Amino acid sequence: MIKVNVEVDSRSWFRKIQNPQQYLKKKLKKISNNISIFKGKNIVFTIMLTSSLNIKKLNKKFRKIDKSTDVLSFPYMTRDKFKISKKTYTYIGDIAACYEIVNKRSKKTSFVAEFDQVWVHGLLHLMGFDHVKNKEYFKMNKYENKIIKVIL
Length: 152
Description:
By secondary structure, the chain is of the alpha/beta class. The chain has helices at about 15, 20-35, 50-65, 100-105, 110-125, 135-150; strands at about 1-10, 45-50, 70-75, 90-100. Helix 5 packs across helix 6.
C-alpha cells in the first residue's frame, strides 16, 4: 500500500483540486493494486504542493539551478540501499510540485492530467528510477505511461 502526506503551501492548488489528500489517496490505491513494482510494498512519501517562487528556491538550494521547475524529488535512500519492508511502512522521500508550471501546461490538456504526470514522475524518482541514460529513460517512461493509464 502507498501512503502520502500532503503539504500545501500555495492556496492556488485548492482552485483546481479541492482535497489533494483524498485525490492522491484514490490514485495511489489504484497504483498499489495494479502496478507490479508497487504490489505488496508498504511505502509512504510526502508531496508539497507549492508555488513557482518556492520551487525556484528549492531548486537553487539543492540543485544549484536558479529557476522554477515542474517537480523536484528528494529520495530518502540511494538506489543501492533501496529496500522496502513488506511489514512496516518505508519512508521513500519527498516531492515538490509547482502550481504555476502545472497550470500553464494544462492549457493543452487538463490540470489533473498535468498534475498526475508530474507527481507520478516524482514518485518514480523516489523509487530509484532515473532518466540520465537512454536505457533508464525508456524504462522510467514505460512505467510512467503504465501508471498514467491505470489512474485515469
